[in-house]
## 1
Amino acid sequence: MPSPSRQPSPKAVHPLGSGQERRAVTAFFFLVLIFFAPAALAETVVAVANRLETRAGHELIIFDLTGSVSATARPVADPARIIVDLPEVSFHIDPKDTPTFASAKLIKTYRYGLFAPGRSRIVIDLLAPAAIIRAQAQSYGGGARLVIELAPTDGANFSAAVKAAILTPPEPFSNLAPLTAAASGKPVVVIDPGHGGIDIGATSKHGEQEKNIVFEFARALQAKITTEGRLQAILTRNEDIFLPLNERVKRARDNNASLFLSIHADTLAEPHVEGATIYTLSSKASDLEAAHIAEKENLADQAAGLERKEDTEDVSDILFDLTRRETHNYSRDFSKILISKWKDAGSLNKNPSRSAGFVVLKAYDVPSVLLELGYLSSEKDLSRLTSPQWREQAASKTTEAINAYFLAHPITGRPVETAPRNGERPE
């Protein structure tokens, strides 16, 4: 998955000037936070800078903080990573100032952000097996430094450390407040802004982050649907927070959604590829690009440090299969309508209708599509995606498509309310 370690184009000029000037500004901001921050801000520790250092073969990631925090670190495998859990920390760090890793022997890259309410996380991707020497904050003056120090080790010792960490797992992902919408009697549309929190998604070469772009679009779309008053629109996340993929699906089902729309804006290796693409669920991808995009999106949980889980097998039940087939037909119908409306926006991919095995589209009883707004790797798409005028136009076209779908399918709940054998619904 893309991470904050992406660097700006060599031609890009940072608005704060040279690296030395930026460090001076960061230091000044740090002093302001320490001495003049209001009490409300003081309650949350702020990270204002970070850097990578090498000392006698050890590699250290250092965060400058406005206050001390407790930290717990553990290794995980498949792939090899170090997970550092913290109380909530507000990371006020320009992604462009994340250090480079050209000389690193252990650290491939790392990312950080809000993981759950009251909890932040740092995920370090490894180039080679590493032992955790320390992960702790050291107070000084009015601030602190969080130091994560890693040393080389061998595969056997790393595997042993992973097994020991599994024996004492961290708290489960249990303090996430459920999403429940007030009953209105209107069909519910659940809009899912992809990524969030520690999972930033894709990043443009100029530093724009997918999680922010899709969140702004989702909010604009929700506002337009709500203003019209025909439907009830809710977001899977209302802030910059991480959500596991299955939790996004669960939030649609828990709210008896009649339609689920996941919003994304990825990157590709080919910068000339542009335009919106609409994906539906299929066990076999429609093409290699669709398979590649689905593979990346399905690694979102892994990017946030969650353990990899195997997909559960489908329940064998005739009514369940009928419901799933009908849901798939509804999803394809909406995809066609959405494509027809987006033609007017003039920003469709040359092959806009695709399918693949996206985890977020796997609700068997909620029609679901994934809307790729465009690609951050395309300068043309990036110009559109960061334009408030384009966002409003695209949100209007999407609203038109949603309205047209419900006119063609005047349902007020799920297409067929049935349950698999034993009364359990698979997630």
## 2
Amino acid sequence: MSGKQGHGSGYGWLRVGAAFLLMLGAMLATVFGAGQAVAQEEAEADATVRFVHASPGTPNVDILVNGQPVAEDLAYGDVTNFVAVPGGDHTVQVVPTGQTTEGAVIDTDLNVDSGGAYIFVAMGRLNDIEGNVYEVNLDDLDEGKARVRVINASADAGDIDVAISGGDTVADDVGFSDTSDYTDLDTGTYSLDVKDQDGRVLVTAADVLIDAGNAYDIITLGLQEDQSLALLPLVTRVAEPCASVLGLEATAADACLRVVHAIPGGPAVDVYVNGSPVVENLTFGMATEFATVPGGDDRTLEITTTGTPPGDEDIVDQEVDLTGGTAYQIVAMGDPGDVSAEVMRLDLTPVPAGQARVRVVHASTDSGNVDVGFAQGETLFEDVAFKDRPPYKIVNEGAVTLQARGAGEDTILIEADSAIEEGLVYDIIIIGRTADQSLSLLVLSAPAPVRQGDVATPVGGTPSPVTGTTGGTPVGTVEVEMDEAETPTP
């Protein structure tokens, strides 16, 4: 996605993008990509888990979930990227590299919720090693904020406090294997002191970068007895600004905007926000590419016939709220003379590997309520009325046959083979009229990051045994045995 930006007027011109008008679905496969359709259902979002080797003196290890290896040759101080795991109960085994599971040093249960993100930490000395699981807080963050907590994986440091050098305490009285509550911090570079309960500084970590939109889990690892105590900051992206996801230049205050013309029989239109033009000559069935506009509340949105300046002859004149860093889609819909502009937020937050988000927007004035789903599976969206846009649902990647049917009926309005790709957010917009056989699908997509985690450089103490990079690369996605009522991931 790309968009031209004109900062002189404060707005980026929206270009008409390569949206596809799919007459009766015949071309849907060209949007998603060709593929043989297979059975598909609505899926629960996978959980994601990353694994940390924080046991000093323990050799390199392999990690197995439900008997399946997900990481190999993980060294002390190394961290895997996120591994996709179905929600529910699992078994985790930590095995010295090259040994069988009979030699597992950790054999424990793992319970995860669908859509959650977790950190599994192998900690303690080899003769007393244990595995502990910590859930990452993925709730929305306030603009400009990050969240930080401390996990104490040092077996001999005792209860610790962590404070900003010369400033506020970030975590206090954190015992071995315990975690502090999350604390919100502003973007910046911090120096952090790890202290014992007498206030003595055990180690100082300088130049710890805290960036907005991230959750930071700072693990204290190593031993005080050999002065190897160090900090390992793990980063989980919670909400990346829309411009970063979409590859646009923007300030923190800018929102990202896409405009869709879904007025059958309507003229080509120009769109203005606060009196400044953002798109011109947009025709029915077309959508713009994303571009940036200044965010803010009570922005004036005006849609006019192309060539007509904003004013008394506006097709649409309404107030809209656009939050900086957030992606929006404006769909102009209705019959000529009775047009509304529906403003809807796009969810571009990270998705688990192998999955995507799908939403339906009903913009056809005379097709009645509809059901939308997969021919080989369940109905995803039921009884969707004109102007409705039910919340996004998670689906697995793979080939499908998509159907739109009359609500509660077997009558198929649109059917097409398609293939859903991971890491995309799909808006399937039903436009046109049944009366003149122009009922169509406008299928739009936007990227969403596949959930990943970064490892910041460990600092303080003697970080020599710690690589500072992600190691133990996951070797597969966890699968579970399905019963007959379930449908395997394509």
